[in-house]
Known about the structure:
It is built from six helices and two strands, in the order E-H-H-H-H-H-E-H. The chain is mostly helical.
Amino acid sequence: MPVVLTLNSVMADRGISLNDLADKVGITNVNLSRIKTGKVKAMRFSTLGMLCEVLQCQPGDILSYMSDEEYRAEFGVDPFEDGYAEP
């Protein structure tokens, strides 16, 4: 039952680069890149809150839930096969 990060599409909609967003949120480019690509197992609520503040969005705009079956159909792999839910 993966939670999938959709930060990439929100960033594209807002026209903000990874470097600019990382600077405004106050995290490193590496950490933001890991969040953006779904290579994280957890995220602090404070980070999620800052992302939402900077991007002027709601947490549900950045996170979405997929059933295992939906995930397999969308991405062609089992969720958490490599330890991460990655779109």
